[in-house]
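Following up on my earlier thread - several people asked me to post the actual chain instead of describing it. Fair enough. Here it is, all 330 residues.
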Amino acid sequence: MVNSTMNNIEFVSRQLMIILGITMFIFGFIGNILNIRVFTLWSRSRRTTNNANVNNRTNNASLYLLTSSISNLIIIGYLLPTRILSDGYQYRVTQNTVLVLCKLRYYSLHTFNMISLTCVCIATLDRYLISSRDVRLRNLSTTRKGTKFIICMILLTFGLHNIPIGLYFDVSHDGKCVIYSDVYLCYYRYTVQIILHGILPIIFFSFFAFLIYRQLKSMKSRDNEQRFVIVDKQLSQMLLLVSITMIVSSISYSIESIYDLMIGIHREEESNYVFLYHIVSSLLFYGNSTCSFYIYYISTPNFRHQVRKIICYKRNSAQHRKNQVNTITM
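Reply from S.P.:
Thanks for posting it. Predicted structure:
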């Protein structure tokens, strides 16, 4: 009876990963492509407006979120399918696939996830600064050139920092990805998993989510609802909701990492429940990359309007090409 229950829990866990994972892949892939299109248009269009100084600064969030969306697309397109293969279909890594499924996978996972997290962090900070009533805080927001430099430094920093991850990860005798070096394993668990992916994002997003919430309340009390104030409110609301989803996923990821570090080996009865939590934690982790588009779409009228323009433009272009073909063939 106990064995049957344990087997059912494992079966349900794997089916959850397969069904929800594939669903997240489809919606996440489409969503991030639309994110990239929208933020590309926003980052280009606003620099030709009249007030160059103001628009260069308000444009920063679009550049950061564009970089985050590209990273999320790689996470959804490459890393999520390999997680579905591993946890859903029980695919075992071999020496022939260790480069793609262990070394390159974990390097890409931590590099692009940290790039995405950091860009959203800085976009949140920048949005708080530029929406502040304090002139000194507003002046701390960087220009367009400064934003590009920061993004390049983020890419370079995490690209170089995570090289040892690709070098030290290897395949075990039972087909799992492991780190054999005790020294680097200690650094990986405490620094990479718990601090960089857990504690720091939770502290940062919690703090600035609170500040942005207070800022939104002050914006509501203003009598003069000018256009730029409305845009600031929409972007702030969008980043507030994204911050909340980041906090939730970081907490679940941190709990799993700390539990594995403290407990390590568990009994067979416990392992199935631990595996179920691992599946839930993994889905929440990839949920950040999947849900961003839908959070932007729900919370930001300007974003919805831009998405509709893109879709309508593609429909009109397709109809125009069809009409041209019909005219020629007739």
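The chain has eleven helices and two strands. That should answer part of your original question.
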